[in-house]
Amino acid sequence: MTDNMKKGIIALGLLASLSAYSQESYVPQAGEGIVYFLPKTKVAVDIIATKVNYQPGEFSLYASRYLRLNNISSQPESHWEIKDIQVRLVGVPDSTKAYIIKVKDKSVASNVELTDKGIVKAINTTSTEKESAPDYKLEKPELHENVRKYMTEDILMAGSSAKMAELTAREIYNIRDSKNIILRGQAETMPKDGASLQLVIDQLNKQEKALTQAFTGTTDRTDKVFTILVEPNNDAQEQVAARFSTQLGVLPTDNLAGDPIYVSIRNTSTLPMPEEDKKKKKADGAIYNVPGKGNVTVTYQGKKLFDGEMPFTQFGYTEVLVDGLFDKKVNTRVIFNTTTGGILKIDKD
Fold first, then answer.
1. What percent of the chain has pLDDT over 70?
2. Do 343 and 316 contact (CB within 8 A), yes or no?
3. Most buried residue, 2, 81, 132, 184, by CB count within 10 Å?
4. Of the listed ranges 21-25, 75-79, 295-299, the one predicted with least confidence
5. CA-CA distances (angstroms) from residue 208 to 173, 195, 241, 284, 339?
6. Which has the higher per-residue pLDDT, 173 or 182?
């Protein structure tokens, strides 16, 4: 079996797997070659939501009496907050734009790099474009100290919760006094150097925090990213991308328990549309996208959370890289943007 025949079989297998994206996929003309898709652009709305969990302390009922802390709840509570909303673009295979680069002995265009979804990345070179998702710095629940390991024997042996709370509060005040004496340099036995001093202060702070949480309780914040993909529609009206509830978090569009998060994508492109015959163009060389522009806005509860102009394949048109560019006498290298299908870089020597 020749190398060309092997490439043809690989191409047909790739086409069969990629056509599963849509039953209305464009079927390239028959012949040996490398099958590739151009991308269409979708808006990825990343909703970074925070789940807040409050657990009351063992002595929450005595926080006001012994520590003068007011409005300390004795009931557990949880809710959701929107921490941030980020907007980015992603490219997905456009089932209406599947093409074949025919394998020719005199052409180097057969050296094609594709993404794992079959979108063209580069011709006659290797793309350095990365397809990794953004790495958001997410909050995770804090590890809380076991408060009882900082309680004295007198506290643990107390006969009631009220007495335990009183003795715990007294211990907190003693720790504060100890820190003040050390920081003023009035302790009978002072740490030998600055590092030792810091270790002592850190340990006292840890004890004070753990004992105080027995009154104030603990609040944990856990971030989670919800990604919603939105595709431009023809009427350019606002779309409900998701819903959000402070009690339930991010919800699907049909769950009316949450308020809607709207996404609007409006065509702002002024690109002139070429008048050439598209069928003829498909046979002349490698097809690529010339993306247009669109304005994207995201709103929630009447507040605009994002407003920006971004490139969109759907608001542009396709062009062709003529076969003559890939003659073996001319070493032409092309790198494509896998989100829009446009050319990132082209050079030759």
1. 81
2. no
3. 81
4. 21-25
5. 9, 20, 46, 76, 53
6. 173
